[in-house]
Specification:
The complex is a heterodimer of chains A (210) and B (186).
Chain A: H1 3-8, H2 13-22, H3 34-87, H4 99-104, H5 108-117, H6 130-143, H7 150-165, H8 171-185, H9 192-201
Helix pairs in contact in A: 3-6, 5-6, 5-7, 5-9, 6-7, 7-8
Chain B: H1 10-21, H2 24-44, H3 49-65, H4 76-94, H5 97-113, H6 122-131, H7 134-145, H8 150-157, H9 161-181
């Protein structure tokens, strides 16, 4: 009993005696193995926290890379315009390739969902960084002003579902938005398996993607 | 009244270590020391033993997530029971408390029967505490059963210290009355 409690019942001996007896019931209930269960849960939370922190670092790096790419694109456009004005109309074959294609050759918007889904070691996109891929999907969708491209969204949902299951922040919410958009447009969600099959058989080309 | 601030609080030192070094070992010590009081905090509020275990786990996970927000020098128990109280309020909002309470007593009685060293009439005491009005129950739970100084209870419940004292007194008097009505003398 604390001094405060003793003081509370100092003027009433009967109540003080009852309080003394009542004090035995402070920890009457117990749950065997509870402390161990809590420790396991906290360890899991700590591990998830570390994963999220690592992902946040990747996101930050991806953000910096995107900013740098944008700066390069603007610079390339300005130089191109400048040369064009000085030299008259340039021949079509010397027109610069889009910056994106020059850098990667394959539009990453469509490559990334496949990379995310291809977690297995023998997947078609083995070795790609899942965290970076998810970051790019989300960034791209945001840059498009939401889930404006239904075809892209239908592929991304499968990727985002996997990413959400892996605990990547933002993936679950992004997927919900994509699904809402697909429902509104009467478009089916693509499944992970379909995504892999599409990647393997080159179906992306049919959409004019590759 | 006891002033909680100037005394050395070993639990606070452990919590500070958790916040500073992300130390899971220090946190384990806190879990070992405080899981039973938190569990009883929920059980006495009328939560079934299984749900109480889940809520206790939730308290410690929240505590871990909020370790960086712990103010060095603050009393650890104040921080812990403030979280426990908010977990209980969230739980009440989530569930239909009346429906849950119906099966709670059966569930808890089984657990108590299985514990040979239990004090007599533990079930009746728990039922009586859970039947107290919430304001009295919170005060007696923290200021009496959890042995927190009234100054800390006043911080957790945001009420004056004098009010804590009168609520503890009234709650204990009411418990005595309820138990005596059932013919129980502790």
């Amino acid at each position: 009993m604390t001094d405060d409690v003793k003081e509370t019942f100092a003027g009433d001996p009967a109540a003080a005696a009852f309080a003394e007896a009542l004090g035995r019931y402070a920890c009457a209930a117990e749950s065997p193995g509870l402390a161990e269960r809590i420790e396991r849960a906290v360890s899991a939370a700590a591990a998830a926290e570390r994963r999220r922190a690592a992902f946040a670092r990747i996101l930050a790096r991806a953000g910096a890379a995107a900013a740098a790419a944008a700066a390069v694109a603007v610079a390339a456009f300005c130089i191109d315009m400048h040369v064009g004005v000085r030299g008259g109309n340039p021949p079509a074959e010397t027109a610069p390739e889009p910056v994106f294609a020059r850098i990667e050759r394959i539009p990453s918007d469509f490559r990334d969902p496949v990379a995310v889904c291809a977690f297995s070691p023998d997947g078609p996109c083995n070795g790609w960084n899942v965290g970076e891929s998810v970051a790019r999907i989300i960034q791209k969708q945001r840059a498009d002003g939401g889930w404006g491209n239904p075809v892209l969204s239908s592929w991304c949902t499968a990727a985002l579902a996997k990413a959400a299951a892996e605990g990547f922040p933002g993936a679950g919410i992004a997927r919900m938005k994509a699904l809402r958009h697909l429902r509104m447009n009467g478009i089916e969600e693509k499944r992970g398996g379909e995504l892999l099959a599409a990647a393997a058989s080159g179906q992306f080309a049919r959409f004019g993607i590759l | 009244m006891t002033d909680p601030s100037p005394q050395f609080d070993p639990a606070a030192a452990l919590m500070e270590r958790c916040a500073r070094e992300d130390g899971e070992e220090a946190f384990s010590e806190l879990v070992g020391k405080f899981s039973a009081p938190v569990l009883n905090f929920f059980v006495r509020a009328g939560v079934g033993i299984n749900d109480a275990s889940d809520l206790t786990q939730e308290v410690f996970i929240r505590l871990w997530k909020r370790r960086k927000g712990y103010t060095p020098g603050a009393k650890f128990s104040t921080y812990l029971f403030t979280i426990a109280r908010s977990v209980r309020i969230d739980d009440l909002r989530r569930k239909d408390s009346r429906r849950r309470t119906e099966k709670t007593w059966l569930e808890n009685r089984d657990v108590l029967e299985a514990k040979p060293e239990r004090p007599p009439h533990a079930d009746a005491v728990r039922r009586a505490v859970a039947a107290l009005p919430e304001k009295l129950r919170d005060a007696v739970e923290l200021g009496f059963f959890q042995n927190l100084p009234y100054a800390e209870v006043s911080q957790i419940l945001s009420i004056p210290v004098g009010t804590v004292k009168s609520r503890v007194f009234n709650a204990v008097a009411k418990l005595k009355e309820m138990l005596e009505k059932e013919g129980i003398r502790l």
